[in-house]
């Protein structure tokens, strides 16, 4: 029972030390990051990352020079972020702003009709046998060559063509019936 209590006391002390360091260094770390990053919205995340790394330490109270440790950690957070952004190509594209996109030239009723046709197509595809549906999707929607579809599914090209014809007949029949409703 005594070991359990000392474990709880140790954890409480650890939390107290972390809270004290956060109170003392959160603002200086924010200023540090604000001077070194172009995106101000990232600053709180960067500060949090420093304290997250600190919280993973078994005994943050044992740090002899906390200011030095925290700012070296902050510099490492920036380096890690720069590496991640380089790998992801951040900054190599222009952001898409909703108001910069042109509107559709299609009238709303035409858009609705297209959505209904797509929903009908999906419903018809769900009724097809799995292999037939897979072949239709790979061939028609994914644009694969019939020989590649057959090879991917481990069947002959002729068998794949039969499945494709069956799927096309069912889809055509269903869409024609929907149009003439």
TrEMBL record:
It comes from the Bacteria. InterPro entries: RNA_pol_sigma-70-like, RNA_pol_sigma-70_dom, RNA_pol_sigma70_r2, RNA_pol_sigma70_r4_t2, RNA_pol_sigma_r2, RNA_pol_sigma_r3/r4-like, WH-like_DNA-bd_sf. Residues 21-85 form the RNA polymerase sigma-70 region domain. The keyword Repeat does not apply. Pfam families: Sigma70_r2, Sigma70_r4_2. PANTHER family: RNA POLYMERASE ECF-TYPE SIGMA FACTO (PTHR43133), RNA POLYMERASE SIGMA FACTOR FECI-RELATED (PTHR43133:SF63). Belongs to the sigma-70 factor family. ECF subfamily. This is Sigma-70 family RNA polymerase sigma factor. The lineage of its organism: Bacteria, Pseudomonadati, Pseudomonadota, Alphaproteobacteria, Sphingomonadales.
């Amino acid at each position: 029972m005594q070991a359990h209590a000392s474990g709880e006391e140790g954890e409480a002390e650890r939390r107290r030390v972390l809270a004290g360091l956060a109170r003392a260094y959160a603002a200086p770390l924010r200023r540090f990051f604000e001077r070194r990053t172009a995106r101000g919205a990232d600053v709180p995340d960067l500060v949090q990352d420093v304290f997250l790394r600190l919280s993973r330490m078994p005994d943050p109270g044992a740090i002899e020079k906390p200011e030095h440790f925290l700012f070296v950690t902050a510099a490492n957070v920036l380096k890690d972020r720069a590496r991640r952004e380089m790998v992801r190509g951040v900054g190599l594209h222009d952001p898409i702003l909703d108001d910069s996109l042109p509107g559709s030239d299609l009238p709303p009723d035409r858009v609705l009709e297209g959505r209904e046709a797509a929903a009908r197509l999906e419903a018809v595809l769900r009724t097809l046998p799995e292999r037939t549906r897979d072949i239709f999707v790979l061939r028609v929607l994914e644009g694969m060559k019939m020989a590649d579809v057959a090879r991917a599914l481990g069947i002959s090209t002729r068998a794949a063509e039969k499945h494709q014809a069956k799927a096309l007949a069912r889809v055509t029949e269903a869409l024609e019936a929907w149009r003439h409703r």
